[in-house]
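Reviewers asked in the last cycle whether our approach scales beyond single polypeptides. To address this, we selected a multi-component target totalling 621 residues and predicted its structure end to end. The input consisted of the following lines:
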Amino acid sequence: MQTVFSIAIDALAYGMVLFVISIGLSVTMGLMRVVNLAHGAFAMIGGYIASYVARDLGMGYAAAVIAAVVITIVIAIPIERLLYRRIYGQPELTQVLMTIGITFCIIGIANYVMGPTLKTIPLAGPLQGSADLGFRAISIHRLFAIICGLVVALGLWLVIEKTSFGVKLRASVDNAAMAAALGVRTEFVYAVSFAVAVGLAAFGGVVGAELLPVEPYYALRYMVTFLVVVSVGGAGSIPGALIACLVLGAIDTTGRYLMPEFGEFFFYLAVIAIICVFPRGFAGRVT
Amino acid sequence: MTVAMNNETIINRPRSGALKWDLIGIIVIVVCAALGYVLFPDNLALLTRILAVALLVLSLDLVTGYCGVATLGHAALFGSGAYAAGILSAHFGINNPFLMTFGGIIAGAIAGLFCAVIMLRAHGLPQLVLSIALIYLFHEFANKASSWTGGSDGLAGIMPGPVFGLYEFDLFGHTAYFFGVALLLIVFVLLRILLRSPFGLLCRGIREDPLRIRAMGASPKTALVKMYVISGAVAGTGGALSAISTQVVALDALSFTQSAEALVMLVLGGTGSLFGAIAGTLIFMLFEDYVSAANPFHWLTMVGALLIAVVLFAPKGIYGTAVARFSRRGEGSQ
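The resulting structure, written as structure tokens, was:
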């Protein structure tokens, strides 16, 4: 019972962190049709900045989170302007080549600037320790990650379903040329969603630093995981991504607890099974 | 109507020039191989490794460049060939290099069949993700079956016997290098013939428009599975060559990194052309070797910058862009 409970909490926290990082990837992929392998690199940049602000400057966790999100967006905007613009609408292979190139560059620079060691982000006082639920104590940080995931999901749902920007975004996802013809400034929609996606990646990188430790090869190590989550969920779908993160998070965590010697065998077996049954992902649309 | 006309032009044009290009290709490979042997006699291990990876990239070109199947898990076929050749020698005592290579070809073809059956169920991004999942599955399986594969320690104890009973695989790698050059030449010629055959043209047609191919009465899926098996045999040859030349098989042979690097080399050189695949391998591996030796701290940044530069300035790959520029200039001067 104890094991089941801790697996459930860890799986939920892991799934939520995955969700926060990869939902941005899902939206940009559904919107711009770019296979963006560099998304994990932005999460890593966020983690590094938070670590620098919180540990080396000693400015506290909240400041670290805000700095990470803002600075990562500031770094990402020129990259989008100069590099990503060129690969919209190009064949998938070109996109893979370009985004792997960007990832390599970011890894190399991070390795040079921050060093090859693992970076920690000191938690704020109230997030340390564990909460006693009477029958079982759980780490407050795990709870915090879960709550962050829920807030992000709810916030995105509200923005996309209830605001006029959300209407324009959905229109651009469905048919960018038609949306542009109807007067939606798709360039603007693209830029804002890219910035939000990168900001969420940075946020997820900071919140999930305990589960996905920040080091230079972070971008390469988890790149595949994020891509898998988006594909299993169906690009561009928030409920799909949420379900995919929870299911895959549960499978991965259970596998690690019960059969650690098999590594990620069951995770990828499940991915193959799911894609064979749902070739477009859980919530993928017919295009 | 258009398809028929296109086919005619494709068939008619190369008939006269095809043999010439085959000959030029063979001469270029032989000259490059001889140059490598003369210029870098101390670095034959790297050159042999380039030959093995070139076979992997050629095999990837068959499915990605000619059939349009994007995959980030092609090292699964390469690694299967390497492990098959290695296990034949280390566990069964079959040390004839030709039998080992043959074992690698068979294992690669079987792995190709397995991957094709799973991967061809999806298209686009899910297909890419399936290929990633497959390579991790192969990797974890090889890691787990350590009594056969040596797990993360690698498979050691591979003792290939002398070629034709005469040429020992020596410490300096002379025999391995010539063995590799011979394999590459044979594969190159066979692939040129294959790609010019009606089957090769059918595969190109599938990349252009699968729906129309089906309307013409051919089954795209059967053709793709066949091509995947052939591609597996080629990749298995490369794997066997790497097992024979290094006399060890590491888990890296089955890794995602190896697959991604192969794809990068292919796109770098130019997809849909055997010359492009070989050129991409040569350029990437020499660049990587040079940069990582010159500046071990920055080499990843440099490789990344090279990739970005290629996308920005040579979108068809280095070889493809060079050919396009060359032919445009040729037309302009006429």
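The longest strand of chain A covers residues 130-132. We regard this as preliminary and will revisit it once experimental data from Aim 1 are available.
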